[in-house]
Specification:
Blueprint lengths: L7 H14 L6 H14 L54 H10 L22 H9 L4 E8 L1 H12 L13 E7 L5 E7 L13
Antiparallel strand pairs: 1-3, 2-3
Length: 206
């Protein structure tokens, strides 16, 4: 099956141009295509009106006198059916050739695709869930690190207090303390709490 020379959208544009600028503004091939389009959809072709219908002249005989043809009264013209013109926008083309060139440069679709690309969420760090748990259970104290060397425990405390670990931002939002780990000899634990905005945090030990 061959592809039509003009698409439905192009035929609508050509029909609108014929109504606006005149039928003679179309090329011969465009007139033929729009003519078929009008017949298919029952549209009035622009510029064509019913002609005067006359009765045929009867032939003269010896007994009859010549009869002059009398034109019949014209029937009222049928109302023209016009296609709605496309809504004007800032980017609407001004000429027929430009209209068709722009229509052929893109392929319009009805809606956004359902599977458009969405930027994936960044992966969670090892501290994302502990920080979220402290916020969810606001005011409760939890052990977030254990069986640690004292130096490592103190380092973790400072990183949380200064907001270096992104999960525990903003800076100073959490209380963090270091204590001996009674489950493991010579080891330390790190305890943290999210006190919330309602508690007075000015006197927290550091």
């Amino acid at each position: 099956m061959t592809k039509p020379k003009y698409t439905q959208q192009e035929l609508e544009q050509l029909y609108a141009i014929a109504l606006r600028d005149g039928w003679d503004q179309l090329e011969q091939s465009e007139r033929l295509a729009v003519g078929r389009y009008c017949r298919k959809h029952g549209l009035q072709r622009h510029g064509i009106t019913p002609s005067v219908i006359t009765q045929p002249v009867q032939a003269e005989t010896e007994d009859d006198k010549p009869v002059k043809s009398q034109p019949e009264p014209l029937a009222p013209p049928a109302p023209e059916t016009t296609m709605p013109e496309p809504a004007e926008t800032e980017a609407q083309p001004v000429g027929k050739d430009e209209d068709l060139a722009l229509l052929r440069s893109v392929r319009f679709i009805a809606d956004w695709p359902a599977d458009i690309h969405v930027k994936p969420a960044p992966p969670e760090s090892k501290w994302s869930k502990p920080a979220k748990a402290l916020r969810r259970f606001e005011g409760r104290i939890a052990v977030i690190g254990e069986n640690m060397e004292r130096r490592a425990a103190l380092n973790l405390k400072q990183r949380i207090l200064h907001g270096i670990i992104k999960a525990f931002t903003p800076k100073g939002a959490y209380r963090v303390e270091v204590a001996p780990d009674h489950r493991h000899e010579d080891k330390w634990i790190v305890c943290a709490q999210y006190p919330g905005d309602s508690l007075n945090t000015a006197k927290r030990p550091r």
